[in-house]
Design brief:
It is built from two helices and 15 strands. It is mainly beta. It folds into two domains: 59-155, Jelly Rolls (Sandwich); 166-275, Sandwich (Jelly Rolls). Strands 1, 2, 3, 4, 5, 6 and 7 form a seven-stranded antiparallel beta sheet that branches. Strand 11 (212-216) and strand 12 form a beta hairpin.
Length: 276
């Protein structure tokens, strides 16, 4: 017969009933199978994603924003958008990014597009935030955010609102070379449709023949404007039309050379802004 020392038994694992699943601290019901429940929850969320998308509003947000002092604007939404429809009332080309605002406009890449001056464009990109760059302070931009992609669309620059024409009239007797006959002071920069009416009267000499030019900011734009002299002088002034870019400064009709001392030059400038 084998004798077992009690001290040996103390160091060995004793047989007992089968182990059960873990229990909450303090006893009570069994702990749940957390891994299994998380897997089941993940499957359920995957199955419900389409339903949740259908339940979300089609139009997440619609607003008009004014660009800040840096010519920028931004927006953030609690729900992700899938597309943006952007209508620009700015005279500048804008950069639109499906991303939070940054110090400067992003370069080419995903989630970035450009909108022509006073144009329209749809940007399909999924994000929570958008940002606008490139305009002037106070420019208005309409932003509509949708929970679903929209058909790609873009429109070129829209027609500008009608604006009043600007006028400048002047007359000079015996002007020297470079003298302004009529001058329009600092019109807003842009592209202008201009009509010029010029005539000469008084004592007309051969020096008056085509002795006019158009200058913008002291730079000659049209080096010679028709001005009948001699037998044709004193007749009805014929309008001269041209589209002229004015970046800055004054617009002037000037004498090209010295006129006859008794020749009277008269000019009228009519300018209408047609594009930024």
């Amino acid at each position: 017969m084998t004798t077992v020392n009690a001290n040996d038994l103390a160091g060995r694992a004793q047989p007992g009933p089968p182990r059960r699943a873990g229990r909450w601290p303090g006893g009570g019901r069994d702990m749940p199978d957390l891994a299994g429940q998380l897997t089941g929850l993940q499957k359920a969320i995957g199955d419900l994603s389409g339903v949740l998308e259908q339940m979300s509003p089609r139009v997440i947000d619609s607003r008009i924003v004014a660009l800040d002092a840096n010519g920028q604007a931004s927006g953030q939404h609690r729900l992700p958008f899938a597309s943006l429809a952007v209508t620009s009332f700015s005279g500048s080309q804008l950069t639109i990014a499906a991303a939070p605002p940054a110090g400067s406009a992003p370069g080419p890449g995903p989630g970035v597009t450009q909108v022509a001056p006073r144009g329209f464009r749809v940007l399909n990109a999924r994000a929570y935030a958008w940002s606008v760059y490139g305009g002037s302070p106070g420019d208005l931009v309409d932003i509509q955010a949708f929970s679903r992609p929209q058909p790609p669309a873009a429109a070129p620059a829209g027609a500008s609102a009608p604006v009043a024409s600007l006028f400048a009239f002047g007359t000079q007797t015996g002007p020297l070379a470079g003298t302004n006959i009529a001058s329009m002071v600092a019109p807003a920069p842009g592209l202008y449709a201009m009509t010029l009416l010029n005539e000469v009267s008084g004592t007309v000499t051969a020096a008056e023949q085509d002795n006019l030019r158009l200058a913008v900011n002291a730079v000659t734009v049209i080096s010679g404007l028709p001005l009948p002299a001699g037998a044709a002088a004193g007749g009805q002034a014929q309008p001269i039309s041209a589209n002229v870019r004015v970046p800055a400064g004054n617009v002037s009709v000037q004498a090209k050379g010295n006129a006859g001392v008794a020749a009277v030059y008269t000019s009228l400038i009519i300018a209408t802004l047609i594009a930024p």
